[in-house]
Specification:
The chain is mainly alpha-helical. It has 14 helices and four strands.
Length: 374
């Protein structure tokens, strides 16, 4: 009972210290509100307002039809340019795509020939170039096919493909990007808060006060873990209710209570990681450098940006040791597909195991650090 009271009072002390840290509170509020909104709305995963220019050397009804098929929001209204303006426009970054329709294009299409349409792409804009290339090909092919079918008999296909989009029928990238960015922010905040809490004790000299008290390293560490985890849980819950569901109008399918419970388990691992980094770093600048090395792989390779199945098998196996991999999987299952505990229990067990290992490693390191200071 005395140990529990010590852990409780130490956690309350951390929460009071956080409450007096205006800068850290501002970062938390800004990251889970304004930053979440800006990234969710400003970084769509699909093609958005890509600049395209068209060189129409045919001036036929078919070429005009192709040019009119490019319109917002995927593309800007096409710029109709001459041949000699293509290279300067690409060099200056005015256009991402330049589509060159050759002379006699319509005549050759109706004659059954296979004329070539040239597409020049500014590949320095990697995201738009990769996605937009397929968009342009699909649009040109679709318009040519529709045009030809009006002049020839329409062939009846032996089957009809019916496509149904589940969970996100409008393919709205904001629904996906907002939730994944919120998970990344939660990871960053949980590691920073616990690491900064330990470094702040060292910089202010209050860690020596704790050493002379009848407290164990386990109590000191667990007090920081539960208090910072609670702060992140409260901030994340408010962000989901007021920003994700309210401001951005993202429909969440699953149980919010189940997600918060899973989040608490995930924070047990990330806050322990923050304590470990706080014992390694001697100052906040060193802590910042360590975060660059640790957090970027956790975010980029956990399945939040790209599917894990598209990564090399070695990377997939290595990332199974990261808590973010399992948390992203269960968060997607709960929030996107409405999954219950019968679906996500393997990820919960994995988070329990990884969190326990992280906590033990951090506790061993924390004891050594305390012992050297004593």
């Amino acid at each position: 009972m005395l140990t529990l009271l010590n852990i409780f009072h130490l956690g309350v002390k951390e929460l009071r210290s956080l409450g007096r840290d205006t800068l850290m509170l501002t970062v938390i509020v800004f990251a889970l509100s304004v930053q979440l909104y800006v990234i969710g709305k400003g970084l769509p995963q699909s093609l958005n307002k890509a600049p395209i220019a068209i060189i129409d050397e045919d001036h036929s009804p078919l070429s005009i039809r192709i040019a009119s098929a490019f319109y917002p929001p995927h593309f800007l209204t096409p710029f109709m340019i001459e041949q000699d303006a293509a290279d300067p426009g690409l060099d200056e970054g005015m256009y991402t795509f330049v589509l060159d329709i050759p002379p006699n294009f319509q005549r050759d299409v109706l004659a059954g020939k296979q004329p070539t349409v040239q597409l020049n792409v500014d590949a320095t804009r990697v995201a738009q170039a990769f996605i937009g290339n397929n968009y342009v090909q699909a649009i040109v092919h679709g318009e040519v096919t529709a045009f030809v079918q009006k002049h020839r008999s329409e062939a009846t296909l032996p089957l009809e493909l019916e496509i149904r989009f589940l969970f996100n029928p409008n393919l709205n990238s904001v629904w996906f990007g907002t939730v994944m960015e919120m998970l990344n922010i939660i990871t960053v905040l949980s590691v920073i808060l616990t690491g900064a809490a330990l470094i702040r004790e060292r910089e202010h000299g209050t860690i020596e006060h704790l050493l002379v008290m009848p407290l164990t390293p386990f109590e000191i560490m667990l007090g920081k873990v539960w208090s910072m985890a609670l702060a992140v849980v409260i901030a994340a819950t408010a962000s989901i209710i007021f920003v994700v569901q309210g401001w951005l109008e993202v429909p969440l399918q699953g149980s919010l209570g189940l997600f918060i419970a899973s989040l608490s388990l995930y924070l047990f691992a990330t806050t322990s990681l923050g304590i470990f980094l706080g014992t390694v770093a001697r100052s906040m600048p060193q802590m910042g450098l360590l975060l660059l090395v640790i957090l970027l792989p956790l975010q980029m390779l956990s399945g939040g940006f790209t599917p894990r199945e598209s990564m090399p098998q070695l990377i997939q196996n290595l990332m199974l040791a990261a808590p973010s991999t399992h948390f992203v999987a269960l968060a997607q299952a709960i929030l996107y597909r409405g999954a219950g505990i019968s679906i996500i229990w393997p990820q919960l067990i994995a988070l329990c195991g990884i969190g326990s290992v992280f906590f033990l490693l951090a506790l061993i390191r924390f004891r050594k650090t305390i012992g050297s200071m004593a």
